[in-house]
Structures are given as C-alpha cells and as structure tokens.
C-alpha cells in the first residue's frame, strides 16, 4: 500500500506575512460569538510580536511554557482551560513558537474534539474525530513540525507522537522575520534537526523519488545556511525545514532519532540538542553526514555536552534502550528488514554509554 498522505491545506510564505493572520482568521470567525485560541511560546510575552497578535476581545491568549518539551499532562491541562473558558468550542487554535508550541497547538486542537486524555492517542491513527481548525506559525526552524502529521508528546509510559491525518495543520504562516532573533546555539540545534532528517531520509531503505527530491533540496539549503552563510539565510532555513519535513513524511528518520528519543525520555534532553549529541557518535552509520555536521559545528563554534549517559544507572539505561527500540520503523528504515540482528540491546547500550 502506498501512503496517501495528508498535507497542510494552505501555506503563506514571505517576510511580513504574519500581518496577514488577521485576514486569514476572519474567514473562520463565523459569528459574533466565535473566538480563537492563541497558544504562544511565553518567550514572546513581552516582545514586539505579542503586540502584533491579531486577538479580538473574545479571543483567548495562552502563554505556553516550553522549558520542558510537551507532555500529555500539559496538553490535557490546556484543553481543560479552554473548555472552562467558554461553553462552546473555539473557531480556531493558533500555535506560535518552535516545534514545542506548534505541537501543543496541534495536540490541543485534537483533544478539544476527542474524549479522554492525550496519552490515549499516542500512536498511529487512533484519533477518530477531526480537530478544531488549527494554524501553525514557526518562530524557530528545523523540526518540520509545521508540515508533519504528528505531535510529539511525552506521556506516562512513552515518548510518542499522536500521528494522524487530523493532526496536520490546516494553515501555516511561514514568515522568516519571526526567526531573526533566535539565539545562535538554539538556531543551530534546531537547524541540525532538519539536516539530520535529510541525512536519515536520504540514506534510508524507505527512500523514494518523492522523499529524495525534497531531501536533496533541503540538505542543499542547510549547506548554504550552515557552511556558506550567504544572504537570506532565514528564508532558506525556513524552507529547508519545510522540505526536510516533506522528505521524512514520505520516508522515515533513522538511528539518530531513535536514540535521541531514548535520551530525551530519560534525561529530558531537548530534541535539537539531543539529536546533535547522538549524531556525533554515528560515524558507523552516516559517515559523510557526520563529517559534514562536524564542519558545521566548527564553523558555528558549537561544543556539545559530553558524558550524559555514560555512568548512568542500569535501570535508566535499560529504559532508554526500551524507548529507542519501540521505534521499529526508524530502525527498519535505517538498517533494513533484518535490523534486529544488527541493532541488539547490547549494541544500543554500548552506543549510549559512549555519549
Ligand atoms: P522549542 O520549540 O522547544 O524551543 C526551544 C527554545 O527556543 C525555547 O526556549 C523557546 O522558547 C525558544 N524560542 C522559540 N522561538 C524563539 C525565537 N523566535 N526567539 C527566541 N527564542 C525562541 O524548539 P524546537 O527545536 O523548535 O522544537 C523541539 C520540539 O519539537 C520538541 O518537543 C520535539 O519533540 C518537537 N518535534 C516535533 C516534530 C513534529 O513533527 N511534530 C518534529 C521534530 C521535533
Ligand atoms: Zn527531528
């Protein structure tokens, strides 16, 4: 079976296009009682962007905190706050921020129409009812969360996305001006998420012409941004993230992401930096990619934390291995159908112990 995948319905791109958000939302405000929920990364609470959010007087702005990456309990709490706010559902949910804030918006828009806890839906195609109309506005580029069909959540048992066609944004607003002030290290880590998406997609067994076309374009843009530092680098990085996301949508990520999920679940390491920490030890699987990544790190003067998992208690290490091993499609993409013979528990442990 070929994947019949759902894409974002509407995309607006360009410097300053955030100013069009008011017009875009106007079409969804069906009557005088309609309201829109804005879930905005609290890093912007006192910023110029806060003043530009086109909120009307019935709208609800929630400043979300992403010091920890999204958890199912936080999604459930936000959903309840919105239900308490009004006796009707919102006309739209708008997520403004990096991958974390966008994922929160996706998850909340799903949980407003589906019963129970978000933890019940971690997995593939468990969501039954369409979400509230939802809009994604990245302020940090690299995760590809703006185009993906998942919202990545840490739950009580596992770190796993709510993967469904309903998760996909109805609208995205890609305004490169919004990523201008991201701190250098963060820009690098999240940018490398895209770079690693491409390396894993382009070197995977699931590769096909669709994924290759997007992956090659995205990796070229990453090189321009992180090795050449030419003009328009924010515009390019934003499109690299988009294309990288499209590439993995029709293939899969690989070894680095599987190991990084384990690291993140047990140690709380954030996605971008976690991928960088892991990728630096993957010469055996992605030799050219790792070499090029090291040149980018050098150019950006990045030094990664070391000895994170080395010396960790046995039960925590075991949990890391468990979380990584659940991600079967990632391993199969990276290593082929016989991956279980190659990537044993001991091998994964040994890799973690070097980090
Ligand atoms: P993030 O959203 O976690 O943000 C990282 C930091 O940057 C935060 O402190 C945030 O406040 C800050 N920040 C964001 N925009 C800023 C700006 N313009 N200026 C200054 N600071 C800014 O980082 P991320 O790397 O974009 O996202 C990581 C999250 O995305 C993880 O939770 C990960 O699981 C998820 N993710 C999701 C997908 C998906 O397809 N849904 C894919 C990859 C990763
Ligand atoms: Zn990623």
Automatic annotation (TrEMBL):
The entry's keywords: Oxidoreductase
A Pfam family hit: ADH_Fe_C
Entry protein name: Iron-containing alcohol dehydrogenase
Domain annotation Fe-containing alcohol dehydrogenase-like C-terminal: ranges: 189-288
Residues in Alcohol dehydrogenase iron-type/glycerol dehydrogenase GldA domain copies: 9-176
PANTHER family, A to Z: 3-DEOXY-ALPHA-D-MANNO-OCTULOSONATE 8-OXIDASE, ALCOHOL DEHYDROGENASE
GO terms, molecular function: alcohol dehydrogenase (NAD+) activity; metal ion binding
Species of provenance: Candidatus Desulfaltia bathyphila
InterPro entries named among the record's database cross-references: ADH_Fe/GldA, ADH_Fe_C, Alcohol_dehydrogenase_Fe
């Amino acid at each position: 079976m070929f994947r019949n995948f759902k894409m974002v319905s509407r995309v607006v791109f360009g410097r300053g296009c955030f100013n069009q958000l008011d017009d875009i939302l106007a079409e969804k405000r069906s009557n005088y009682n309609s309201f829109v929920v804005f879930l905005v990364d609290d890093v912007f609470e006192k910023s110029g962007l806060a003043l530009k959010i086109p909120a009307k007087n019935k709208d609800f702005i929630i400043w979300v905190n992403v010091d920890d990456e999204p958890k199912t309990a936080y999604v459930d709490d936000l959903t309840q706050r919105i239900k308490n706010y009004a006796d009707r559902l919102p006309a739209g949910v708008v997520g403004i921020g990096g991958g974390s804030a966008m994922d929160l918006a996706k998850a909340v828009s799903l949980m407003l129409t589906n019963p129970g806890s978000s933890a019940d839906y971690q997995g593939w195609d468990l969501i039954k009812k369409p979400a509230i109309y939802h809009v994604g506005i990245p302020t940090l580029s690299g995760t590809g969360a703006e185009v993906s069909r998942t919202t990545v959540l840490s739950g009580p048992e596992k770190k796993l996305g709510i993967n469904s066609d309903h998760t996909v944004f109805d609208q995205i607003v890609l305004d490169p001006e919004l990523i201008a002030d991201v701190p250098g290290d963060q820009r690098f880590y999240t940018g490398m998420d895209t770079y690693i998406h491409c390396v894993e997609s382009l070197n995977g067994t699931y590769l096909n012409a669709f994924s290759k076309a997007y992956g090659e374009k995205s990796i070229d843009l990453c090189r321009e941004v992180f090795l050449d530092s030419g003009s328009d680098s924010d515009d390019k990085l934003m499109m690299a993230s988009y294309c990288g996301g499209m590439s993995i949508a029709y293939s899969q990520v690989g070894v680095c992401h599987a190991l990084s999920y384990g690291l993140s679940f047990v140690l709380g390491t954030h996605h971008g930096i976690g991928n960088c920490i892991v990728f630096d030890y993957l010469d055996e699987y992605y030799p050219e990619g790792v070499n090029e990544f090291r040149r980018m790190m050098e150019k950006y003067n990045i030094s990664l934390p070391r000895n994170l998992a080395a010396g960790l208690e046995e039960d925590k290490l075991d949990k890391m291995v468990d979380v990584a091993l659940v991600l079967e499609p990632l391993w199969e993409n990276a290593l082929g159908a016989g991956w279980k013979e190659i990537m044993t528990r001991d091998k994964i442990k040994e890799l973690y112990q070097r980090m």
